[in-house]
Amino acid sequence: MSKEFIVVQISDSHLFADTSGLHHDTNVYQNLIKVLQSIKQLPHVDIIVFTGDLTQDHTDASYQLFVQAFYACEIITPVYYLAGNHDEPKLLNHHLASAPFCPENVIETKHWQILLMESKSETPAGEVTQQQFSQVANAINAKKSQLLLMHHHPVDAGFFIDQHGLNNQQQFCDFIDAFPSIAAVGCGHIHQALTLPMTLTKRIVNLYSCPATSIQFDVISATAAKNSQGPGFRQFILTADKQLFTDVTFI
Description:
CATH class: Alpha Beta
Low-confidence stretches: none
Order of helices and strands: EEEHEHEHEEEHEHEEEEE
Helix content: 10-25%
Number of domains: 1
CATH topology: Purple Acid Phosphatase, chain A, domain 2
Number of strands: 14
């Protein structure tokens, strides 16, 4: 296997204004620290992508704590980011304005593009705007393969979180169908590590969801409840011969 580019995806930190803040009786700041420390021990990481829901209490201080965690763990790997339904894009851009954070939504390698697609709407559910579809479409280089990352899940996951999924699922699937070079899609939001096949008219593309750094949802619960899994992250290994491999780590 020819390793070319390694992407670590993290998601859904749900921080509070204070390091002692609890989400479902779990210290989410300490869980974020554990995840970052684990990533720090990996032999090689090219970029980190955070796919949203930084904050739980919507305070400026929660954004500051997110940045503080990266500084505390001495993360120097470039970190790209997307807004989740809990986040304010203006606050993300304001607080994540210095290294290691990067505002770009297209990351280029020799053989791959990592594309970040915004899905935040005015409700907890997601919506990809026509402007966002056009922006991503214009960035695609058909001679390369693409890994597309977003916050909301564009196909149903089969548990309560589906009420807050992507509103325009069919439009999204039609978009993926139109670009055969898109190899895979990754999302956050559902607080679970799942592989969900997206059945398109011409092919099947996998959606890989990322475990949360905060808590993992119990998929058999009718409402939001955590299970016994610890915090986690996902790795994507993108090879020079355009193969994609992925793995999940729980701590």
